[in-house]
Design brief:
By secondary structure, the protein is of the alpha/beta class. It has eleven helices and 14 strands. One of its GO terms (molecular function) is magnesium ion binding.
């Protein structure tokens, strides 16, 4: 019997308008009425994840930054898994050498060195999700969306190391040439030993501490709630979801998901623009998967 559901957000719970559909909302409320806990497991930080959840009236616990930070329903941080400052400095040198744009997610929010490059790189992701848009339209839409997301701009990331008690939780990298450039970088980072590289899109990679993975965080939450992993359901679409897809007793890949996610998942649901999450939840509960 399903007792805990963990869902990714981008490309999964959220539709093309970055909103939670009414069908998904009703399915989540149905699950909650059956005594099933729903939570999100996202690469976003909490401030980025909150707006669509609040708009939908969904109050839940959160696994954020791919598992680097976990919050209870009230917003209290339960634990963090940071990247050491020494490793961060080394990564910064590597990424700058390759001229790769990156952002640093911390316990105090997201930091960037360039608003222009941020918009340019996120516009590529927008264009992927909405291929009918022209480049100019994608830039305009991205700029409008990012204006509402909290971000801190600094002249030099080295300023972060002087902030007392600041923890580095994730580094996300973007390049318009995708795997051709980011693939070799991933191989180099794999040699660092205690880091893991995943992805939430064709043109990015996300770097976390090896113990900061969605699967590890979901397992931790389930243990805290005395829930067997066989009674856990996970839903995702991209490579940063694989760890939680692999461990759950019931797992769904989105119809728009990556091939690897579909290979690991036990079930397949519709795409994110077809309310695949809601359909998966109803099926799992009503069929007692």
């Amino acid at each position: 019997m399903i007792k805990l559901i963990a869902s990714d957000m981008d490309g999964t719970l959220l539709n093309a308008n970055m909103q939670i559909s009414e069908e998904n909302i009703q399915a989540i409320k149905y699950a909650q009425s059956q005594g099933v806990e729903f939570m999100v497991a996202t690469g976003r930080n909490r401030k980025e994840a909150l707006p669509p959840l609040q708009e939908a009236g969904i109050d839940c616990a959160m696994i954020t930054l791919n598992g680097a930070q976990v919050f209870d329903k009230s917003g209290t941080s339960l634990f963090t898994v940071p990247i050491s400052k020494e490793k961060t400095r080394s990564l910064m040198d590597l990424l700058r050498e390759k001229d790769i744009y990156f952002e640093i997610s911390t316990s105090n929010g997201i930091y960037s060195e360039s608003q222009t490059r941020r918009i340019e790189n996120f516009a590529i992701h927008t264009a992927e999700a909405m291929p009918h848009l022209t480049h100019k339209m994608a830039i305009a839409m991205t700029a409008a969306r990012l204006a509402f997301l909290p971000i801190n701009y600094v002249k030099d990331f080295n300023e972060l190391f002087a902030i007392e008690d600041l923890e580095i939780l994730k580094i996300i990298c973007f390049h318009q040439d995708g795997a051709r450039v980011l693939g070799p970088i991933t191989q180099e980072i794999d040699g660092y030993g205690d880091l893991v590289v995943t992805s939430s899109g064709q043109n990015n990679i996300e770097i976390n501490h090896r113990n900061a993975q969605k699967g590890i965080a979901v397992a931790h939450v389930a243990k805290e709630r005395a829930i067997q992993l066989s009674d856990v359901m996970t839903i995702g679409d991209n490579l940063n979801d694989v760890s939680m897809i692999q461990l759950a007793g019931v797992s769904f890949a989105m119809g728009n998901g990556e091939i690897e996610v579909k290979e690991y998942a036990k079930y397949l649901t519709d795409t994110n623009i077809e309310s695949g999450v809601g359909k998966a939840i109803i099926r799992a509960i009503d069929e007692n998967l």
